[in-house]
Write a structure and sequence with these properties.
The protein is of the alpha/beta class.
Length: 333
């Protein structure tokens, strides 16, 4: 019903010229949620500029390790043993994504998993922008009880057939995205697009159980999570803290920057860039913190909670990357 009303709300000539020319609605199922987890299935619905489906594609992927929570995604070691490796489907995946905005529910997660798989395969993901349907539903002010895909689907009357199956999740999201996109166009809403910066290199952690090996007691293969690199002490920032970052302004040398949650760029590389720019990388968040960088401002982590309490500005990784390109020098003493 809402789709019909939205369609009638604007003429074909009123479509915003700045909107993207095509979208790739994506869903991936994975062995888990950590940095070293792998994609085990992927689906893409290609949509035109106005959200109409052009085609769809689905594949399973052999993760070369234990498949993780089978009770969620239903893909067993036996089912994945004959599946192609990611490097075998990377070219087809690229053809589905190239030149389009990646659309996903909690898009930063899908994007990060995809970027890492491409980096492992020693190639670059063709995605330059992503759009999160959670963020879009917030921009539209949709009266949802929560931000689950099932709630967005129910709002638009989309029926889910196989939850946590990549192809059906992508179908559901595509059908819910179309009326969302049309409502945004009718209201002149600026789409919440975020820059995607592909990884160019990758080094996996110590080997984890491969398909055919017995899973450990923790359900995700029993593998141990380890740090990226041995911890190292950073040199003290030579500049005084000039205070908090102001929205729309520039970062200044000496500002204290904290990070929370997953990042598409390896955390220590991101921190190195901040240090090289003259910023103070803080391991905790306090009233003196100038800025918090997180891709999930609604995560409820201790740093996010403290940032809300202290009124600390929050930006995502893409915005932070842009700010790093133009850091203001420290004031001369």
């Amino acid at each position: 019903m809402l789709e019909d009303l939205t369609t009638a709300a604007f003429s074909p000539t009123a479509w915003p010229a700045a909107y993207p020319k095509g979208y790739a609605v994506v869903d991936v199922e994975t062995t888990g949620l950590a940095r070293d987890d792998r994609i085990i299935s992927a689906a893409v619905y290609r949509l035109d500029a106005r959200g109409e489906v052009e085609d769809h594609w689905y594949t399973t992927v052999n993760p070369e390790r234990d498949p993780g929570p089978v009770w969620i995604h239903g893909l067993t070691s036996e089912a994945l043993e004959g599946a192609p490796l990611f490097q075998d489907i990377a070219e087809e995946f690229t053809a589905r994504l190239e030149g389009r905005v990646l659309v996903a529910h909690n898009a930063v997660f899908d994007w990060q998993m995809i970027a890492r798989e491409y980096a492992r395969a020693k190639c670059e993901a063709p995605v330059r922008q992503r759009l999160c349907t959670i963020a879009l539903s917030k921009e539209l002010g949709l009266p949802l009880p929560n931000h689950k895909l099932e709630s967005l689907a129910a709002h638009f009357g989309v029926v889910q057939r196989r939850a946590h199956h990549a192809l059906d999740d992508a179908r559901v999201l595509a059908e819910a995205f179309r009326p969302s996109l049309r409502a945004a166009a009718a209201s002149g809403v600026r789409l919440p697009l975020h820059e995607c910066r592909p990884l160019t290199e990758w080094s996996d952690r110590p080997a984890t159980p491969r398909i055919g090996q017995q899973a450990g007691p923790r359900g995700y293969g029993g593998y141990r999570q380890s740090s990226w690199r041995p911890a190292r002490k950073r040199p003290a920032c030579p500049y005084p803290n000039p205070g908090r970052y102001e929205a729309g302004g520039r970062l200044k040398q000496g500002m204290r920057v904290a990070f929370s949650g997953d990042t598409s760029t390896e955390r220590e590389l991101l921190e190195d860039r901040a240090t090289e720019a003259g910023l103070h990388v803080a391991t905790s968040l306090s009233r003196l913190t100038s800025l918090l960088v997180t891709n999930d401002p609604d995560s409820g982590t201790s740093k996010v909670v403290k940032a809300r309490q202290f009124g600390t500005p929050i930006v995502d990784e893409a915005a932070f990357g842009q700010l790093l390109a133009n850091v203001e020098p420290a004031a001369e003493a």
